[in-house]
Design goal:
This protein has 422 residues and is of the alpha/beta class. The protein has 2 domains: 7-112 and 155-420, Peroxisomal Thiolase, Chain A, domain 1, CATH 3.40.47; 116-150, no CATH class. The protein is built from 12 helices and 16 strands. It has helices spanning 22-31, 75-91, 116-125, 135-145, 158-167, 182-195, 213-219, 259-264, 292-305, 323-337, 346-349, 356-370; strands at 7-16, 19-20, 37-38, 51-52, 103-109, 173-176, 201-209, 249-258, 271-280, 314-316, 341-343, 372-373, 389-390, 396-397, 402-408, 413-420. Strands 1, 2, 5, 6, 7, 8, 9, 10, 11, 13, 15 and 16 form a 12-stranded mixed beta sheet that branches. Strands 3-4 form a two-stranded antiparallel sheet. It is globular.
């Protein structure tokens, strides 16, 4: 049932390891293409795991304006900026044709690590004659070596800020930094802004790069897949033989509009947001996830969206490809929606942190529009501990054109977004 207060999706912008732009991304998903490759962004020989979901041949100069802004943009920010441009083009709308005060941005971001090249000289100056580290010398070196605007490259809110400046979006602007659930929460916030009547158009996005060298060293490799000789098959959501996650990078942005605004300008509506949910299962870091947060989020979003197992087309799962997380999520999904088909796109491109949720939701937007659900790459052997119906080998058709995308974090937060073809 349609009404003027509906929040609809009119544009999709994607920067991913399997394609740049919605069309390339969608084709790669349907074909089961691989985006996991050896890392060549920097010299990775010192790492135990030297592969990941790296975006190949990305040239930020094709997107970023003014060009001098690149000096204060990390790779994460560049991805988000480019995805926003692509989403606006896909929606067929130019910012100069929008009321700038009713046009806003909400982004999901990770914490952005400092570049080693920027800090190398400061570390060297902090080394004392006795090979110890002097914090006093380091503090002095930082003030002398780093350019005044250095910090802007590493503030998570700068993605939304740069996009708002470039697009002249003067409406609500926000950034959510809550790990893996960040970007679906950004969609929820952006949709809420429109429903409240505070904006007509919102850019909802997520971006992340877990392939930054500092991030790789800081996080370690305890949870990573070690399939160095078979890295294309390393990310295996819900598969019995999964051995860990695969780091990746990427960004996606959706153009959200009120139905009234979209119809008035004659926009092509890709899908409609039915409901969103956010829940949390607080737990101690040393304990394993139970999936209770996922279960609560799914039950909430199903109720609010008016969906059930007969009318729900598919679940787009978090599918991290680690033992405990996949097991907890799968059991939660099974408890709520039974054998509803599940797809897990991380098998194609790895885990892009805050960027993953939007990449996955973008896949479902394209799926409900086309009536085709992409398969889960590398799912070969069912795991009895993951009792769900994973789509694999080939795309699935003939399902209701509705979907729920879900993400959850190791600390228990869960977010879900339900959509339908318009």
């Amino acid at each position: 049932m349609q009404n003027k207060s509906d929040v609809v999706i009119t544009g999709v912008g994607v920067i991913s390891p399997i394609g740049i732009g919605a069309d390339a991304f969608w084709h790669a998903l349907l074909e089961g293409e691989n985006g996991i490759r050896p890392i060549d962004l920097f010299d990775a020989h010192g790492l135990t795991v030297r592969f990941g979901g790296q975006v190949p041949s990305f040239d930020p100069k094709l997107y970023v304006r003014p060009r001098k802004s690149l000096k204060v943009m990390s790779r994460d920010i560049q991805f988000g900026f480019a995805a926003a441009d692509l989403a606006m083009a896909d929606a067929g709308v130019a910012s100069e044709h929008l009321d700038p005060e009713r046009f806003g941005v909400v982004f999901g971001n990770d914490m952005i690590y400092a570049d080693l090249d920027d800090l190398e000289t400061t570390y060297r100056r902090a080394k004392t004659a006795s090979d110890t580290f002097s914090y006093d010398q380091w503090a002095e070196a930082i003030q002398e070596e780093l350019q005044p605007l250095w910090l802007l490259k590493h503030l998570p809110n700068m993605t939304a800020s740069h996009i708002a400046i470039a697009q002249d979006a003067r409406g609500p602007n926000n950034t959510i930094v809550l790990g893996d659930v960040s970007s679906l929460l950004a969609v929820s916030e952006a949709a809420t802004v429109i429903r409240r009547g505070w904006a007509d158009v919102m850019l909802a996005g997520g971006t992340g790069s877990r392939l930054h060298p500092t991030a790789l060293v800081a996080r370690g490799n305890a949870s990573l897949s070690k399939r160095s000789e078979d890295f294309e098959s390393a990310c295996r959501p819900f598969d019995l033989h999964r051995d860990g996650l695969v780091n990746g990078e990427g960004a996606a942005v959706l153009v959200l509009e009120s139905r009234e605004h979209a119809e008035k300008r004659g926009a092509h509506i890709r899908s409609r947001i039915l409901a969103t949910a956010a829940c949390c299962e607080p737990r101690k870091q040393e304990s394993l996830p139970t999936g209770r947060g996922v279960e609560m989020a799914l039950r909430t979003v199903l109720k609010q969206a008016g969906l059930d197992t007969k009318t729900l087309g598919h679940i787009n799962a978090h599918g991290l490809s680690t033992g405990p997380m996949d097991t907890a999520e799968a059991q939660a999904i099974a408890a709520v929606v039974g054998d509803t088909p599940v797809t897990a796109p991380k098998g194609n491109f790895g885990h892009a942190g805050a960027g993953s949720g939007l990449l996955e939701l973008a896949a479902s937007v394209l799926a409900v529009e086309s009536g085709t659900i992409p398969p889960t790459r590398n799912y070969e052997t069912p795991d009895p501990a993951c009792p769900i119906n994973v789509i694999h080998e080939k795309p699935m058709t003939g399902r209701p054109n509705t979907a729920i995308a879900v993400n959850f974090s190791t600390m228990g937060q869960a977010s879900a977004v339900a959509i339908t073809a318009d």
